[in-house]
Every structure is written in C-alpha cells, then in structure tokens.
Amino acid sequence: MKFKKIFYRDTKFIKRDDLTEETNKMASTNQSPQYQKAEVKFLAAQKEEDKLFYLEEMIRECPKHKSAEKMLAQLKTRRKKLLEKIEKNLKKKRRKSQRGIKKESMQVVIIGFTNSGKSSLLASLTNASPEIASYNFTTKEPIVGMMAYKGSPIQIIEIPSIGSEYYDKGLVNTADTVLILVTSIEQIIQVKKYLDQFHGKVLIVFNIKDPGKVDKRKTEATLRSKKYNFVIISTKIKKDLEELREKIFQSFNKIRVYTKEPGKERSNKPLIFNPGTIVKEVAEKIFKASRAESIVKEAKITGPSSKFPNQKVGLDHVLKDLDVIEFKTG
C-alpha cells in the first residue's frame, strides 16, 4: 500500500497537492526513515494512546535544524491537544467507574505501588478474580470484591497502582478504611503522601513476596517501633490472612447485632451499627418505621449487653457487639 505524504498546519492534515510555499519548505527537511515509518503508523492508528505513541516518536525523529522549527512546533501542538483529549476521556471513565460502584456500609480500598501484590490480596480475601500478572500496571480500573467476615459483608476495592494514569484518588478519599500494601518499609512514607485528603482508618499490610529473603521478626520490630497499625502477610503462601480479616473489621468500629424470631434460630447475617446504638434504632431499621413504640411490644436480648439470656429490655437499651435481639410485635 502506498501512502501519500501528509504534513500538519494548524493541527489539520494537508495533502501535498495543497501545500503552501511555507509548507513546502517543511517538506524539504529530509525526514529520516524512522520518522516516516512513525508517521505512517500514526496515520493508521485507531486508538488515541497509539496515536500519541507514534506522534512522540515523530517528535523525537524530527530534524532539529532551523528549517524544521515550524514543523516541530506544529507536531508539539498536535501532541498537546491529543494529551488533553486523552485526559478528558480518562476523567469520563473514572467518573463512570466510580458512579458504578455502590458504597456498602463497610468499604475498604487497597492501594500501593505496581507489583506490590494488590490483585493477589484481593483474590485471597474476596470472591473477585482480578487479572494477576508480573508486568507493571496490570489493573486499569477499580475491581470490587466482597469479603464475608463472620457473616458481615465487607466491600474491598482494588484500585490501579499509584503512578498509573488510572489511579482513582476519589475512591480513596471516600473509603472507610485504606489498606496500604507495601513490600518495603520505605514505601509506607511514599504511599502516605497520596492520603492527604483521606480521613478514615489506615492499616499497613506488609507483603513478604519472598519469605526466604526477609527477616519477619526484624520487620515486625521496625513497624512496631514506628507505632503503625500493621499486619505482616505473604500473598505468595496466603499466610496470616485471618489476622488481617479481623483487623479490617476492627478498623470500622462497628457492632454486629443478630436478629431472632420467636421459636427460631438467630439469623446468620448480622446487622451493622455504630457503637451506642439502642434497641429502638434496630427496630426502626427492621420494621422500616419511624415510631418503633407502635410496633414493638417486647424486646429480649441475649449477649454481651444482657445480664442473662433472653433479658427483657426497653427501647433505650444500649446494644453491644454480637448481641442477639428478639422482638415481639402486636
């Protein structure tokens, strides 16, 4: 296939037949074979990212003498506009992906540098099946998984690596808890720079990728001396994940309340509340009513907040984690 030579003027393509005298001067700049190949590939490219790649190659290969100055300037202008278009499209994708993720009552976001083991950790903790590869920046969009901890559903999201063009700071800032996944002590300070607008809980997860080359005791002593809230794991052998699950749940500062119908076993899935929640609030949530007094005739509690099993309590009784509540309505 034979390609017609095309040049730029005011960021628009102009065929050789329509070249002005000024553009003809640009045609005499003796472009190298590398430049010409890059130009052909640029014109044939369908994706904006591919166009940018070949355009940058054209800029590198463009002659640097005086007669090519105008041509080089036009190539750079084209590059600037292409970058703006790519960034605009990326922002649209980020907003779309964030809108598509419904925030659950307990949400965790995993952040870290490329190849720190984020995808492996997500796969180990949840029902998600992210792509796991050895090359950099594998994850291109947020991946959502659900972790069931003793009946409590916890939403865990892996976002693209720090340094990636797809990194989503918005998801980080709105999360309840952030897991900083690192493979070295030095990375902790580097990652924390990206949490300047995050106000939730932070849990350091130190991933020992090669157990034979890292002194776990020394690493643990260093993390403890710096007073970090941390867990040491190995995604390679999936060790110590139960401790991590427990610390993830503890980070939310929530209580679990189980419901029970008269004469039946308690539910397997607890309701999640803030500490200090009273019986009235649970009743209003279950029965979807603003006045629990008109529905609940009796409430019984079995668990940490009761003095004995099936203790009758009032609507202002303060609940504790793992309480079982039974309502009698009428």
Tell me what the structure shows.
With about 325 residues, the chain is of the alpha/beta class. It has three domains: about 5-95, no CATH class; about 100-250, Rossmann fold (3-Layer(aba) Sandwich), CATH 3.40.50; about 255-330, Ubiquitin-like (UB roll), CATH 3.10.20.30. It is built from ten helices and 13 strands. It has helices at about 20-25, 35-45, 50-60, 70-100, 120-125, 170-175, 185-190, 215-225, 240-250, 280-285, and strands at about 5-10, 10-15, 105-110, 145-150, 150-160, 175-180, 200-205, 230-235, 255-260, 270-275, 295-300, 310-315, 325-330. It has a six-stranded mixed β-sheet with strand order 4-5-3-6-7-8, sandwiched between helices. Strands 10-9-13-11-12 form a five-stranded mixed β-sheet, with helices on one face. Strands 1-2 form a two-stranded antiparallel sheet. Strand 1 and strand 2 (about 10-15) form a beta hairpin. It is elongated and about 95 Å long. Mean pLDDT is about 80; it is low at about 1-30.
Looking at the overall shape, the CATH architecture of the largest domain is 3-Layer(aba) Sandwich
The DSSP helix count reads: 10
**CATH class designation of the largest domain:** Alpha Beta
List the strand order in the largest sheet. Answer: 4-5-3-6-7-8
Unreliable spans are 1-28
Helix/strand-derived category reads: alpha/beta
Let me know the average pLDDT.
Answer: 82
